[in-house]
Design a protein that fits this description.
By secondary structure, the protein is α+β, with helices and mostly antiparallel strands. It is 67% helix and 11% strand. The chain has one domain: Outer membrane efflux proteins (OEP) (Up-down Bundle). The protein has a 4-stranded antiparallel beta sheet, with no helix packed on it. Helix 2 crosses helix 4 (90-156). The chain is elongated and about 145 Å long. Mean pLDDT is 87; it is low at 1-14.
C-alpha cells in the first residue's frame, strides 16, 4: 500500500490530459519544425520517382560544308541519337537507396513530433506553475490584509504598536510587486507557448488544474529500438549495404545503343541503283571504367560510414538510458519533496493559527506571525515547483517509453 502511495503526486491539471492533448495536436499540425520535417519527407518521396531512371538521350546533328564523297553520292548531313544503359541492377539499386533515404526523413519527422510534444508539455507545465504561483500570492495577499486588519484593531485598542501595521504593509507591497512580475512572466510564457503552436501569440491559453495520480515508469529496453533516433541510425547502417552495391554497379561497364541517319545527295555524273540513298547506321558503345580509384574510394568511404553509424547508435543508446534515468531520478526526488512539503505546510498552518490566536491575546509578537505567514507562502511555492518538476520528469520518461 505504501508503495502505491509513493507514486502519487497530488497536483496536476483538471482534465489537463484532454486540454493538453488538444494543444499538442495543434502543435503537431502547425509547428514550423514539424512542417519543415514533413516537407522534407515529401521531397524525399519525390526523389524516389527521380531515382532509377535512365540518363538523358543524346542527340546530335552535323552539316558537312565539304561533303564526303561516297559511291552513292556525297554525304550532306548527319543526325544521331544515343542512349546509355547502366549495368544490370544499377537502376534498381538507385531506387532502393532513394526509398531508404525517404525512410530516414520519415524517422526524422517522427522524432520532430515527439520533441514538439515534449516541448509543449513542459511549456504548458511552466504556464501552470506561473499561474498557480500568482493565485497563491493573491490569496496570501488577502491573508496579509486580514492580518493588517487584526493589527489595526489592536492598535486602536492600544494593545499593539503602529509599527506592526507598517511592517505588514511593507510585506504587502513586496508581495504585490511579485504578483505584478509573475503576471508579466505569465504573459511572456503564453506568447512563447502560442509561438510554439505557431498560432496568434495573443490567443488565450487555458490552464486548469486539479489533483491527479501520476505513476512512475520503467524503461523497457526493447522499446529503444523503436525510438526514431535509433531506428534512423539502424536504417543508415542498412543503407550502407545498398550504397556499396550501387558503387559496385557504377564501377561496371555501361552500354550505349544508338543510330546515325546520314543524308546523301544524288550523284550527277552517273546513274546508280541506290543513287542518293540515305544511310542508317546502328551504333553500339561501351564505357569501361579503367581508372576506378574513385569507385574503390567510394566503397571504402561507405564502409567507414557504417562504423560511424554503429558508434553513433551505441552512443545514442547510452544517452537515452542516461536521460531516462535522470528523468526517473528527478521524478522520485520531486515526489519525495512534495511529500515533505505537504507535511511542512500542514505544520506551518497549525503554527500560524496558534500564533494568530496568541497575538490576539497579546502573547505573541506580530513579527513572528508575519514570518510564519511568509514561510508558509514560500513552502507552498516550493510545492508548486516540485509538482511541475514531477510532471516534467514524467513527460520526459514518456518520451522514451511511449
Amino acid at each position: 500500500m505504501k508503495k502505491q502511495l509513493y507514486i502519487i503526486i497530488l497536483i496536476s491539471f483538471s482534465a489537463h490530459a484532454q486540454q493538453l492533448e488538444t494543444y499538442v495536436n495543434e502543435a503537431l499540425q502547425n509547428n514550423l519544425q514539424v512542417q519543415s520535417a514533413g516537407a522534407a519527407v515529401e521531397v524525399s518521396n519525390e526523389a524516389i520517382n527521380e531515382a532509377g531512371n535512365l540518363g538523358n538521350t543524346q542527340f546530335g546533328a552535323a552539316y558537312q560544308v565539304q561533303p564526303v564523297e561516297t559511291r552513292v553520292g556525297p554525304q550532306r548531313a548527319r543526325f544521331s541519337a544515343m542512349q546509355m544503359f547502366p549495368w544490370f541492377g544499377t537502376l534498381k539499386a538507385e531506387k532502393n537507396l532513394a526509398k531508404g533515404q525517404a525512410d530516414l526523413t520519415a524517422f526524422q519527422l517522427e522524432n520532430a513530433k515527439r520533441m514538439i510534444r515534449l516541448q509543449v508539455q513542459k511549456s504548458y507545465y511552466q504556464l501552470y506553475k506561473t499561474q498557480a504561483i500568482i493565485d497563491l500570492q493573491e490569496k496570501s495577499l488577502k491573508k496579509l490584509r486580514q492580518l493588517e486588519e487584526i493589527a489595526l484593531t489592536r492598535v486602536k485598542a492600544g494593545t499593539a504598536k503602529l509599527t506592526d501595521v507598517l511592517q505588514i504593509q511593507l510585506k504587502e507591497n513586496e508581495l504585490q510587486t511579485k504578483i505584478s512580475n509573475q503576471k508579466r512572466e505569465l504573459l511572456t510564457r503564453k506568447k512563447a507557448f502560442n509561438r510554439l503552436l505557431n498560432i496568434n501569440e495573443n490567443a488565450e491559453v487555458v490552464v486548469t488544474l486539479s489533483p491527479e495520480d501520476i505513476n512512475t515508469k520503467t524503461l523497457d529496453t526493447t522499446k529503444i529500438n523503436t525510438l526514431p533516433v535509433i531506428a534512423e541510425l539502424k536504417k543508415k547502417q542498412s543503407l550502407t549495404t545498398t550504397e556499396i552495391a550501387l558503387a559496385n554497379k557504377k564501377n561496371a561497364p555501361q552500354l550505349g545503343i544508338g543510330v546515325d541517319y546520314i543524308l546523301v545527295d544524288e550523284r550527277s555524273d552517273m546513274q546508280l541503283t541506290d543513287n542518293g540513298k540515305d544511310a542508317i547506321m546502328p551504333m553500339v558503345s561501351l564505357q569501361i571504367p579503367l581508372f576506378n580509384k574513385r569507385f574503390t574510394a567510394e566503397a571504402k568511404k561507405v564502409k567507414l560510414k557504417k562504423k560511424v553509424y554503429q558508434y553513433q547508435e551505441e552512443n545514442a543508446r547510452n544517452e537515452i538510458r542516461n536521460a531516462f534515468e535522470k528523468a526517473q531520478s528527478d521524478f522520485e526526488n520531486a515526489k519525495d519533496e512534495v511529500q515533505t512539503l505537504e507535511k511542512n505546510i500542514a505544520s506551518a498552518n497549525k503554527i500560524l493559527e496558534l500564533q494568530i490566536t496568541a497575538y490576539q491575546a497579546d502573547k505573541e509578537t506580530f513579527q513572528e506571525v508575519i514570518d510564519t505567514e511568509l514561510l508558509l507562502i514560500n513552502l507552498m511555492e516550493q510545492k508548486i515547483s516540485a509538482d511541475v518538476n514531477a510532471l516534467s520528469a514524467q513527460a520526459a520518461m514518456a518520451f522514451y517509453t511511449d
